[in-house]
Write a structure and sequence with these properties.
single chain; 420 residues; alpha+beta; RNA Polymerase Alpha Subunit, Chain A, domain 2; 3 domains; five-stranded mixed sheet; elongated
C-alpha cells in the first residue's frame, strides 16, 4: 500500500505537478471563454436629467419607472448564469430625448449595481429592445384629502366622537393629466381605531384637567401618509400646515342622567286630509305620561351617553318627544316618534360660548379663533346626532305607541325581557 502511494505521489512528482497546474490553467481559460445567453426579467429603468418642467408618467421618487423590461443578455457564462435583475439597471439620459422618443436599449445603457459585475468586461451583447419614453408637462397642485369615518372599534369604555379636521390638502407634483384627475377626485384618509389602545387613552386622560371629558388622540406622523402609486412608489407625507392638528376625539361611554320631564307633542302634516289635526287626539300612558302645567310629559327620568354633561345641561330643557302621525293610502294612521331639540342653533351658540369662555382645553385654546369655533360647532353637531334616550339598564329606550280611537297610547317597552 505504501509503495503504491509512493508511486502515485512521489515518483515523477515534478512532471505530475506541472501537468496539474497546466490542467487547471487550461480549465480556467476554457471556463472563462465560455459564453451564455440569459433572459433577465423585471429590469429597472432609471431616467436622469429630466427637464424641470417635464416628467414621465410612472416616474417614481427614486428616479425609476414603474414599468420594467426583459433583456436577453449574452456574456461570460460564469457571470451570466448568476445574473439577476437587482445586479444592474437601464439608465437613460433625458437630455437626449424629445417629448416622444423610442429608445433602443443596448449594452451602453446598462449600469451595474453589483461590485463583482463589470458590464464592459462580463457582458458582450444585449439583444436590442425598444421602449417608448414620453415626456409630459409637470404640474403641481393641492389635492383635497377627505378624512373619512374610521374603521375598527374604539377601546372599551370609550365612544368615538369625531375626527378633526376632516379636510386637508396635499401639495404634490406629477404628470399634469394625473394631477388633474387627483384634484377632481380627491383622496381619502381612513384610520383604524383598532390601532389605538385603552392604555393610550387612559394615559392622555391623566394629563387633562378634571373638567375635561373629551380625549383627543393626536394622530402620529406615520399615520399621516397617503399612497399614490401613479406618482410615488412610497407613501407621501401629508404636507398641509394644519396636518399637525389632526386628531381623533373620544368620550367616555358613561351614562348621564337627563333629569328633566320631556314634553310630548303630536305632529300632523298640514297636507293631511281636512279636519285631521293634533287637537283630535289625547295622549295617554299608564306608567310613563303625566300632565304638568297643562302639557303632557314623559314622567320618567332617562339617560343618554356619548355626549358631555355641559351639552346635556344646555339641551335638557329644550327637549321634546315628537309623535308624528301620517295616513297611508287606506287612511290608516301610522305612528312614529323622535327626540327633538327646540331651537338648536341658539343652544349651539351657547355651547360654543361656554367652551370659548372657559378655555379648559389648551389644545383648543391654541387654535385660531375661526378654526376653534368650527371645531366646537362640529363637536356640538356630533352630540346632536347621537342624542339618544337610554333606560336604567343602559339599553336604548323603545316606545310602544298605538292609536285607539282618538287616544294615542304611549308605553315603554321592557327591553330586559327581550334579553332573557
Amino acid at each position: 500500500m505504501i509503495s503504491l502511494l509512493k508511486k502515485i505521489f512521489v515518483e515523477n512528482w515534478l512532471r505530475k505537478g506541472i501537468s496539474l497546474i497546466l490542467a487547471i490553467i487550461i480549465w480556467f481559460a476554457v471556463d472563462q471563454s465560455l459564453t451564455s445567453t440569459k433572459t433577465i426579467n423585471s429590469v429597472g429603468i432609471r431616467v436622469i436629467n429630466i427637464p424641470k418642467d417635464r416628467t414621465i408618467s410612472g416616474l417614481q421618487s427614486s428616479g425609476l419607472l414603474t414599468k420594467h423590461i426583459s433583456l436577453a443578455v449574452t456574456g461570460k457564462k460564469i457571470v451570466i448564469d448568476e445574473l439577476n435583475p437587482s445586479d444592474f439597471e437601464v439608465l437613460i439620459d433625458a437630455n437626449q430625448l424629445k417629448d416622444d422618443s423610442v429608445i433602443t436599449i443596448d449594452r451602453k445603457h446598462l449600469v451595474s449595481h453589483n461590485p463583482e459585475l463589470s458590464v464592459a468586461r462580463d457582458i458582450n451583447k444585449v439583444s436590442p429592445k425598444r421602449i417608448l419614453i414620453k415626456l409630459v408637462p409637470l404640474a403641481e397642485e393641492k389635492i383635497p384629502i377627505y378624512v373619512t369615518k374610521p374603521i375598527g372599534q374604539p377601546p372599551r369604555g370609550y365612544k368615538l366622537l369625531e375626527v378633526w379636521p376632516y379636510h386637508l390638502n396635499l401639495t404634490v407634483r406629477g404628470p399634469e393629466d394625473v394631477i388633474k384627475k387627483l384634484k377632481t377626485r380627491g383622496l381619502k384618509l381612513t384610520f383604524n381605531l383598532n390601532d389605538i389602545s385603552k392604555h393610550d387613552l387612559e394615559h392622555i386622560a391623566t394629563l387633562l384637567p378634571s373638567k375635561r371629558n373629551v380625549i383627543s388622540y393626536f394622530v402620529p406622523n406615520d399615520w399621516k401618509m397617503i399612497q399614490i402609486p401613479s406618482i410615488s412608489d412610497k407613501p407621501i407625507q401629508i404636507n398641509d400646515p394644519d396636518a399637525h392638528l389632526l386628531r381623533i376625539d373620544f368620550i367616555q361611554a358613561q351614562d348621564i342622567q337627563i333629569n328633566t320631564q320631556i314634553p310630548i307633542q303630536v305632529f300632523i302634516s298640514p297636507k293631511s286630509k281636512p279636519g285631521y289635526n293634533p287637537s283630535q287626539f289625547t295622549l295617554t300612558g299608564d306608567q310613563i305620561i303625566e300632565q304638568k302645567k297643562g302639557v303632557k310629559v314623559l314622567a320618567k327620568n332617562f339617560y343618554t351617553k356619548g355626549v358631555s354633561e355641559l351639552f346635556v345641561n344646555l339641551v335638557k330643557d329644550n327637549l321634546c318627544l315628537l309623535v308624528s302621525l301620517t295616513l297611508d293610502a287606506n287612511d290608516t294612521p301610522k305612528v312614529e316618534w323622535s327626540l327633538q331639540v327646540v331651537n338648536p342653533q341658539r343652544i349651539e351658540d351657547q355651547y360654543v360660548a361656554e367652551i370659548m369662555k372657559d378655555y379648559l382645553d389648551d389644545e383648543i385654546k391654541d387654535l385660531k379663533p375661526a378654526m376653534r369655533e368650527e371645531y366646537l360647532r362640529n363637536r356640538f353637531r356630533n352630540y346632536m346626532n347621537r342624542l339618544t334616550l337610554y333606560n336604567d339598564a343602559g339599553e336604548k329606550v323603545k316606545l310602544d305607541i298605538s292609536i285607539k280611537g282618538k287616544e294615542i297610547c304611549i308605553n315603554e317597552v321592557d327591553t330586559t325581557l327581550n334579553n332573557l
